[in-house]
# Entry
Amino acid sequence: MTEKEQQLHQKAYQAVHEKRKLVESDPYRQAFHLMPPSGLLNDPNGWIHWQGTYHLFFQWNPFQPDHTDKFWGHVSSEDLVHWREHPIALAPSEWYEKDGCYSGSAVEKDGLLHLVYTGNVKDENNNRESYQCLAVSRDGVRVEKKGPLVDTLPEGYTAHFRDPKVWQENGRWYFVIGAQTEDLTGRVLLYQSDDFENWELTGPLAGSGINGLGSFGYMWECPDYFELDGTGVLIFSPQGLETRGAHWQNVYQAGYFLGAADLNAPSFSHGEFIELDEGFEFYAPQTTLDENGRRILIGWMGVPDSDEAYQPTVENHWIHCLTIPRELKREGDYLRQVPVKELEALRTGEALEMKADPSRTPEVAVTPASELKINVREAESFQLELRDEAVFSYSASDGLVTLSRPAFKDGKTEERHCYVENLEEVHLYMDHSSLEFFLNDGEKVMSARFFPKPENNVIRIRGDKGSMHWTSWELSEE
Ligand code: FRU
# Structure
C-alpha cells in the first residue's frame, strides 16, 4: 500500500468512527439491506461468488452523505443473508483515479480476484479523464493496485467512459463499458483480450443509432452483458430518456435488452428496452453468475441527480442502501426477478395467516422489517396503506398499479406506475425505510425508500370486492 493510500484509509476509518454513534441512532437504519457504515453508498461493484463466498463491493463516500469522494467499500457473505464488513478495498490515492475509484466488476483469473474499475480524473477546469484500472486480491480482502489496463479513449467518444463489466468466454476476456459519443449519444462498447493485459476495442455492442435503435439518451452507465437461457441480456442505465406516459418517470432508468449478440464482430440484435424496476429508487444494478448457476442481481436503491439530499437520513450522516439480491429468470421475452431463496432464513417465528375482507378494512400492526405475501386473485381493486406513508394500489379493470408516497423535497404526493394484466400475488419486502414489491413472482418490481414515523407500524388493506389471503413474517433484525 502506498503512503497516500494508507493515509486515505486512516482518514476514512476515522470519519466512520466519529460518526458511527450518530449514524446508528438513526431510526431509518435498515434491518436486512446493505448500507454504508456512514456517508453515501451508490452502485454495487465487483459482485462475485468467489471460492464459495459472495463478495460485494460498493461505491462509497465515507466522509459525507454526498457524491464528492468515491471509494470501494467491501462486504462478503456465505449465505446472502449475513454479511461481514471488510477493510476498504479501493481508495482514490493514485494519479489515475484521484477523483474517484468509480464503478467496475470482478472476475477470477489464475485463482486471484481481479477487480476492474474506472479511475476518474478531473483537472482544475473540470475536464475529465477516464482510466480502466486493475486491482488484484489473493485472499479476497487485501487488494493490490496494478494501474491502468486501458488508458486511452476511443476516437469519437467523450471521457464519460466508465464502469467496465468483465467476463470470460471461450478462453477470451471481454468487458463492456458505458460510453458517450462526441455528439452526445449513449453506447455500450465491447473490448476483448487474450491475456488480460492488451485490450482491444472491437466495436459498439449497442447504442443510439445502432441495430436500428433510434435516439436513446446521451449516456449509458453501468452495462452488464451475459447470457441467460441461451439469450443475450444487456443491462444498462441510460440517461436522458424522456418520460413516456406512466413509464420512465425517474430522472434516470435501469433496464435491459434481450436478443442475440455476436461478440466476435460486435453486434446485438435486440428487442425493446424493458425497465427492471418501476418504483422510485433503483439504478446501476450488477449481476453475477453464482456457483449454483443462478444469475443474481443487486441494484442501488437510489437514483443520481434526484432529490437525494432531502432524504431525512442525511442529517444523521448516511444515505442510501442496496436492494435485496434477486435471482433473474427468463420468461419468454422478459426477465423475472425473484428474491433469492436464502432470504427465507430472515423469517422469525410463525407466519401470520389471515383472510382479509377489505370491505372491513383490516388493520394489521407489523414490525418494520416484514415480509408479506398477499394473494389478491379475487380482488377487483385494492389498496395497501403502509404505515401512513406509502400507498400501493391496483385496479383489475385496466391493470394499473400505483405506488405513491410524499416526495422527499416538498412532501407532495408523487406516484410511480406499472401495468400487470392479472395481478395474483403481491410479495413485499419491507424494511425500516424501504419497500420492494415483487408482483406475480417478479414479473414486475417496484422499489422505493420511504420514511414513515418510526412509531407507526400499521398496515391497512382496503378494497371493493373479493377477499384476500395474507401471509406475513417478522424478519430478523440481526
Ligand atoms: C452510476 C455512476 C457510475 C459511476 C459511479 C460513480 O451511478 O455514475 O457511472 O462509475 O456512479 O460513483
